[in-house]
Design goal:
Blueprint: E1 9-12, H1 18-21, E2 31-34, H2 44-56, E3 58-62, H3 76-89, E4 93-97, E5 100-102, E6 106-111, H4 117-134, E7 139-141, H5 156-167, E8 171-174, H6 175-185, H7 189-194, E9 201-207, E10 210-211, E11 217-218, H8 227-240, E12 245-248, H9 256-273
Parallel strand pairs: 1-2, 1-12, 2-3, 3-4, 4-7, 7-8, 8-9, 9-12
Antiparallel strand pairs: 5-6, 10-11
Helix pairs in contact: 4-5
């Protein structure tokens, strides 16, 4: 399988940022991330512009629609198209959500997988198939969720660790998702983080969130990263060592300079805690 080599601090590449980046890429940005579903069929001027970026910079693909825990069969044609896209642009890493987003059709959201032994085996089997087709590892990301899955026979932490072990795959650690879930479901975020399979962490996200009028914290990626999330990232570096980490911002896009300030904060923490070997 193709392996990955990426390091430092990164930023999600959104189309709104392209005009600001035309004058030059800030030195602190070591890599970019995109959701491949948003770029896979893009041609013309925008496609050429994207190609110019992927030829010069390292990129991570953070998928949205693999639906690794879904009940519908894996979309083999989609996986084959994804492989061609990842190969064409030489992506350093491909990650996906430990969730499902399809049933008899695409559900346009990410839903939690039941925390059961059966689901662990089911996800691991689908991971093996997907990774064989892609000819590269898939790093699974811990997902945010708002309703506790039914039929659970284990907690979320045990489930994530069991999937990583059974699927023998790398881990994409989203620190903001831990914080959001800890508030919505009433657990200790620091204890949860330190209980994860840290030796499998290869990549990380920080992001912001919003408070819904119902009192639920929503993982919108629409605000700046808050202090408790930065503190969790620092704890992750202290506990697991430094890993490449990205600022995720999808909505309510601020000026590029504000995002670069967050990227710089990641870089400062990484320098403080040293490089992961």
């Amino acid at each position: 399988m193709k392996m990955f080599a990426i390091n430092g601090a990164g930023l999600g590449l959104r189309r709104e940022l392209l005009p600001s980046l035309e004058s030059g890429i800030p030195e602190v940005i070591n890599f970019f991330e995109v959701s491949p579903e948003n770029w896979i069929d893009i041609g013309g001027r925008l496609g050429k512009q994207f190609r110019a970026y992927t030829e010069k910079y390292q990129f991570v693909a953070h998928g949205l629609s693999l639906s690794i825990g879904g009940s519908a069969p894996l979309d083999i044609a989609f996986l084959q198209r994804m492989k061609a896209f990842l190969d064409e642009h030489n992506f350093a890493l491909y990650t996906e959500h430990l969730s499902f987003c399809s049933d008899e059709g695409y559900l346009y959201d990410l839903y939690p997988i039941p925390f059961t032994e059966e689901a662990v085996r089911y996800v691991a089997d689908r991971m093996r198939i997907a990774q064989e087709i892609l000819e590269r590892p898939i790093a699974l990301e811990n997902a945010s969720y708002y309703v506790t899955p039914p039929l659970a026979d284990m907690d979320e932490l045990t489930f994530i660790n069991a999937v990583l072990t059974e699927a023998d795959c790398p881990f994409h650690l989203d620190v903001n998702n831990i914080y959001v879930n800890s508030l919505n479901h009433g657990y200790d975020a620091a204890a949860f983080l330190t209980g994860l399979r840290g030796e499998r962490v290869v990549y990380g996200h920080v992001a912001g969130h919003d408070l819904d009028k119902s009192g639920v914290i929503i993982d919108t990626h629409g605000q700046a990263t808050c202090d408790p999330v930065w503190q969790l990232l620092e704890l992750a570096y202290q506990t697991f060592g430094v890993f490449p980490t990205l600022v995720e911002r999808d909505f309510n896009m601020p000026p590029l300079a504000d995002l670069v300030t967050e990227v710089k904060h990641i870089a400062e923490l990484q320098q403080r805690y040293g490089a992961k070997s």
